[in-house]
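Hi P.,

Sorry for the delay on this. The queue was packed all week, but I finally got your sequence through. Input first:
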Amino acid sequence: MKNGGKISIIEGAFAQFHITLTGGMFLTAFALYIGVNAFQMGLLAAIPSIMASVGFVSAYLAYTFGKRKLLCVYTSGIGRGLFIAFIVALAFNFRISIQLFFLVIFLFNFFLSFSGNLWTSWMSDLIPREARGKYFGIRNTIISGIGMIVNYTGGILLDRFTQNTAFLMIFSVSVMCSTIAALILSSQPEPVFEKKVIKLETVFLTPLRDKNFVSLVTFVSFWYLFAGIAAPFWVVHMIKFLKMSYSTIAIYSIIAGISSLGFQLLWGKMIDKTRSKPVLTINFIGVIFLPLIWLFARPNFTLPIWIDAFFSGGFWSGINLSLFNILLSLTEDKEIKESYFAVFSTITGICGFLSSLLGGLIAQVLSRFEWQFLGQTFINFHVLFLGTTLFRAISLGFLRQVHEKEAYPTLYTLQMIGDYTVRRLNEYKDLVLNALRFTK
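Then the structure:
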């Protein structure tokens, strides 16, 4: 595990360049640059979700040919390399049509969803269960740190150069780093993976007979379907309504990233001690009301955005880490675990797809909506933020139905976090007092 774990961290570091520079703020800015409208922005956010359904195909092919590693390496490398099409167009000043843009994004997400399902299965075999919380906490911390630096640097490029030149540099670096990542991934060891003859319907039906797994899928599906309607528009809101520069938006990501770094190891330790369910519950409760903060942000008053950045980084790092680990724990020792990952990504992906389309449709229909209240101006995006809060709160009821073996009670876990925090604060206090005494 040691060598494989180290290789995965190095590979993830290079892959993070592509993940950062071809997603989030950069993909949104590029889409606005070529002229997409609000509904098309929703469609853009929906594509990764609907592409999750190819997980079935990847699981089936992996078992049929017994080539999980080979398929994962090639599909991830080819998918990320597709951004060469944009590099060529920008270099020679060719017009990038909306159709070409969506074709590249569609194929990119197809290949990445294919490889992602295989990578999850691969890592679940490579990293022992008892070490996953700490390992992925460390891995995510390192990768997040790199992502912050890359994000801010890319934001500066967008502010200082013409968008054509900036995107040319951004996509060129991303493709170069993704190629290196694919080469490194090819050297990562793979535990024994046996070739099996299975029916495609078996891949789908087997996980649906697992009631606890279905409960997890139900929770995440409802969350994605209704609470994700604002997902395509956080960055759009920053650019169009709050008039924030790209480097300032990058600072938002840096604050969230630093907060994530600070909490990542804590959540990893808690998951190893108390399991994933209580950590997921605590953090999910934390993110329910964050969208409401955005209702009070204005071009001349962005303090709420910075508050959200800090808490989002902390809570979402816990959600992502615990959700990933609970999925691994529920599929532990399953005969065809790849089918569980495929069903999970497919069903939740379809819900995410519909949610993004719904959000895009609402934003487009309400594009002229403007309401003045108590000196505040509210627009279409604020309606989506309010709806997101409501549906996140409802989603919590579905989370209660998810059960994880050996998981500690949520309140006990919260008490452990409190005790840990007090101990660390006392340690820091003693360090500061000793330092002051030494200076005297």
